[in-house]
Each structure stands twice: as structure tokens, then as C-alpha cells.
Task: structure prediction
Amino acid sequence: MNTMKKNRQIAIYPGTFDPVTYGHIDIINRAASIFEKVIVAVANNPEKNPVFTIEERVHFLQKVINDNKTMNIRIDFFNGLLVDFLKTRKANIVIRGLRVFTDFDYELAYASMNKKLFPDMETVFLMTNEKYSFISSSLVKEVARLGGSVKGYAPDIVVKALTKKLKTK
Result:
């Protein structure tokens, strides 16, 4: 049992989650052990050319989280600025996962801009579990596109859907 007292704030874990990986799930579950409520916010960003629709990504996350029976996690989606989403959900904490040092440079720029736009918010960085440190959604998609197996990097429901979707493209 986790003896750490939960912060009574709402935390938002934003991302495209295209596709959701075990690295994402690790961060989600760890954030849920720290904060009273975690909203996993799926970003609707068509400029990233996602493989899955926003509805599919939300569905996969709901399925995976419901399978884990974690009660303080909610799945949602947003368009536009993250800080606007935070305000509508009365949240002021953003969770970001870091895999490698280069992630920090990228995430620091976004955290700094978000802080300028919404001074009351804070960004909390969680280091990804070492066994997931090399997994990224982009890498999973690339391996799957080239016919490699991505089993073990994402939940089975996602692996099957990704394989099927990429075969039809």
C-alpha cells in the first residue's frame, strides 16, 4: 500500500497517445498514486497525422484503464491550448513523462510557455520506468509500419488495432 499522502489536486496528463504504450500506462498509474484525480487528456492535433482517430485513442485508454480498475483516473480529450483545458477542469498541475535527457529540453520549453500563459499551473515531471525508457509512440508506429512486432510495447488491444490499421493503408 502506498503510504504517500495524496495531494488533493487534479493533475492532467496530456498527450496524443497515438498509440498508447506501456510507458504511458506506467506514468498514468504512478500519477494516480500521487494525486487524488488524474485526467488523461488526449490531444486532438490533426497536424501530427495520427494513425488513430481521437475516439479510438480515447477508447483504448478507457479500456486499458478500466482493465486496471483504477478509480481516480478519467479519460478526456481536448482541442486547442492545454492551459485552456486545465482551466475548464479546474486543474493546475500537468504531468509529463521523461524517458531520456532530450525529452527534458523539449518538455521544458512547453512547460515554460504554459507557465507564461497560466502562471498558477505547475508541471510535474515523472521519469519513465527504465524498462520503458526506449518506447515511444513514434517508434512503435514505425516498427509496426515496417512489419515488425510491437507486442510487449503496447496493450494487446492497441497492437491488434495498429497492425490491422497499418495493413489497410
User: Anything to note?
Assistant: The beta strands are 7-15, 35-43, 73-78, 93-98, 122-127.
